[in-house]
Amino acid sequence: MKTIVLLRHGQSAWNAENRFTGWTDVDLTEQGMAEARKAGVLMKEAGLRFDLAFTSYLKRAIKTLNFALDSLGQDYIPVSKSWRLNEKHYGNLQGLNKSETAAKYGEEQVLVWRRSYDIAPPALTEDDPRNPKHDPRYRGVPDADLPRTEALKDTIERLMPCWNDEIVPALRKNSAILVAAHGNSLRGIVKHVKGISDKDIISLNLPTGIPYVFEFDDELNLKKDYFLGDPEEVRKLMEAVANQGRKA
């Protein structure tokens, strides 16, 4: 059996303030750190032992991985970082409060910007200081590959080279891999692995800090997937994510 665990980062400062975050490098809150540690405990109790891990270039995912591995007692495993695992780029919405944006543009429009498959939010301008071309961490990435905004479709296209060329080959050689990333980059992986339709993906909401386990046979055919933790708690957390784009 082969196992991949997807872990959305713990609560960030902008999660707590209900802001669109995207590629903005926001840190974890105390609650987010606790969620990451708890995720590690849940994985340890499930008997999971990882061979290696993948994460993004954003500190909320990197620190979540570090806290989780510490709780697991598996800090020593190799970690690979990829900008391709970054969150969906929310363009000019980054930093805006989701509820206030819903009050201004309507809940339906905000849902489209947050969750639709192929409609992107308004893009950053070239001279916007938030444009990733100005960030030194992406200096090795061709400018044409750096987004100014993204729909989920764009996020999936961006992350698939990492999935196909790095994560899948690593899983073929190993037994268990941990991927600590973001709500939308992980939604993209789930969509791909489970074959979820463009229409149905809009209703998938991943809570922060909850390990999502995928079990495959040796030919990498998906056998089952499940969240670790209390099912009722997970359901409530998923509902809370879904409600973030509603008017206050």
Could you give the topology of this structure?
Elements: E1 2-8, H1 13-16, H2 30-45, E2 52-55, H3 59-72, E3 79-81, H4 98-105, H5 107-115, H6 152-173, E4 176-181, H7 183-194, E5 211-216, E6 222-227, H8 231-242
Parallel strand pairs: 1-4, 2-3, 2-4
Antiparallel strand pairs: 1-5, 5-6
Key terms for this structure?
248 residues, alpha/beta, six-stranded mixed beta sheet, 8 helices, 13% strand
Give an account of the 3D structure.
- This protein has 248 residues and is α/β, with parallel strands linked by helices.
- The chain is built from eight helices and six strands; from the N terminus they run E-H-H-E-H-E-H-H-H-E-H-E-E-H.
- The chain has helices at residues 13-16, 30-45, 59-72, 98-105, 107-115, 152-173, 183-194, 231-242; strands at 2-8, 52-55, 79-81, 176-181, 211-216, 222-227.
- The longest helix is centred in the middle third of the chain and has 22 residues, at 152-173.
In short:
With 248 residues, this protein is α/β, with parallel strands linked by helices. The protein has helices at 13-16, 30-45, 59-72, 98-105, 107-115, 152-173, 183-194, 231-242; strands spanning 2-8, 52-55, 79-81, 176-181, 211-216, 222-227. It has 8 helices and 6 strands.
Helices and strands, in N-to-C order?
Answer: EHHEHEHHHEHEEH
Fraction of helical residues:
25-40%
**Radius of gyration computed on alpha carbons:** 17 Å
Task: Note the total helix count.
Answer: 8
Structure class: alpha/beta
Q: Report the sheet-strand fraction.
A: 5-15%
**Main sheet, how many strands, which sense, barrel?**
6 strands, mixed
| Adjacency order of strands in the biggest sheet | 3-2-4-1-5-6
Would you count the extended β strands for me? 6
Unreliable segments of 5+ consecutive residues? none
Principal-axis shape equals globular
Task: Calculate the terminal CA-CA distance, rounded to whole Å.
Answer: 46 Å
